[in-house]
Automatic annotation (TrEMBL):
Family from the record: Belongs to the CoA-transferase III family.
GO molecular function: catalytic activity
Pfam families linked to this entry: CoA_transf_3
Provenance organism: Hyalella azteca
Entry protein name: Alpha-methylacyl-CoA racemase
Stored InterPro entries: CoA-transferase_III, CoA-Trfase_fam_III, CoA-Trfase_III_dom3_sf, CoA-Trfase_III_dom_1_sf
Length: 271
């Protein structure tokens, strides 16, 4: 897809530099054709590994001239990405209520651990805290072991950056119909819960769930859906849920079984 035909071609994004979810959101928008400018702080350590396709500018937002530059950039932008805790940009005079006066069509995308409102809004945290509060951490891990965090993928990236980018797309669609800008408020905790909603809603599927962590169909409780160490010290992933694939898997291993019951469990010894 050429940049001129990309769905977000012509959309201008102002991204304040931050950690994982903010850069990922900006990267998604850039990948779909938006022009993204990242705002860096003076002498700040660059930890962004998702900057492909973006331009950057160093601005000291605490100086009056720096604030003027940011206001001018916001006034010609379609989207602003705010990765800070609630109230940070308001204290700089760059909150949505100020910027919407001069640019009412601005999509002001905010992502924080617990959202802009509520009793936890000012609390600090990391992906592991957000995933724990979402309830999802309790189902991740092996049998008879403690819950295991999925690096920082679930809250920071899936529930944060990806969900915010989706919210921005919906807000742009709304603006195309009404001309109105709006605030997109993404809570990483709620985003993690939302992206995991199938897990909660599928608990009544007894052939998938219904047992403690690490004893179910898809959570390493099945020998035909798990990882195994190989003879060379590396690992292989096995996903042989359907009976026909399970039978091929067993045959390739040179094993024999009498009865194959596929995804509902097979009466064989653990491999």
């Amino acid at each position: 897809m050429t940049s001129s035909r990309a769905p977000l071609s012509g959309i201008r994004v102002l991204e304040f530099a931050g950690l994982a979810p903010g850069p990922f959101c900006g990267r998604i928008l850039s990948d779909w054709g938006a022009s993204v400018v990242r705002v860096d702080k003076p002498n700040d350590v660059d930890m962004d590994r998702l900057s492909a396709g973006k331009r950057s500018i160093i601005v000291d937002s605490k100086k009056p001239e720096g604030k003027q530059v940011l206001v001018k950039l916001a006034n010609v932008s379609d989207v602003l990405i705010d990765p800070f805790r609630p109230g940070v940009l308001e204290r700089l005079g760059l909150g949505p209520s100020e910027l919407h006066i001069s640019n009412p069509g601005l999509i002001y995308a905010r992502m924080s651990g617990y959202g802009q409102t509520g009793p936890y809004r000012s609390r600090a945290g990391h992906d592991i805290n957000y995933v724990a509060l979402s309830g999802m951490l309790s189902v991740l891990g092996h049998k008879e072991s403690r819950p295991c965090p999925p690096i920082n993928l679930l809250a920071d990236f899936a529930g944060g950056g990806l969900m915010t980018a989706f919210g921005v797309a919906m807000a742009l669609l709304h603006r195309n119909k009404t001309g109105e800008g709006q605030v997109v408020d993404c809570s990483l905790t709620e985003g993690a819960a939302y992206t995991s909603s199938w897990v909660y809603n599928a608990q009544d599927l007894s052939f998938v769930f219904g047992k403690p962590r690490g004893e179910n169909l898809l959570d390493s409780g099945s020998h035909f859906y798990d990882t195994f160490e190989t003879a060379d010290g590396r690992h292989m992933a096995v996903g042989a849920l359907e009976p026909q694939f399970y039978q091929q898997f067993i045959q390739k291993l040179g094993l024999e079984i009498e009865n194959v019951r596929g995804c509902k469990g097979a009466s064989v010894r653990r491999l």
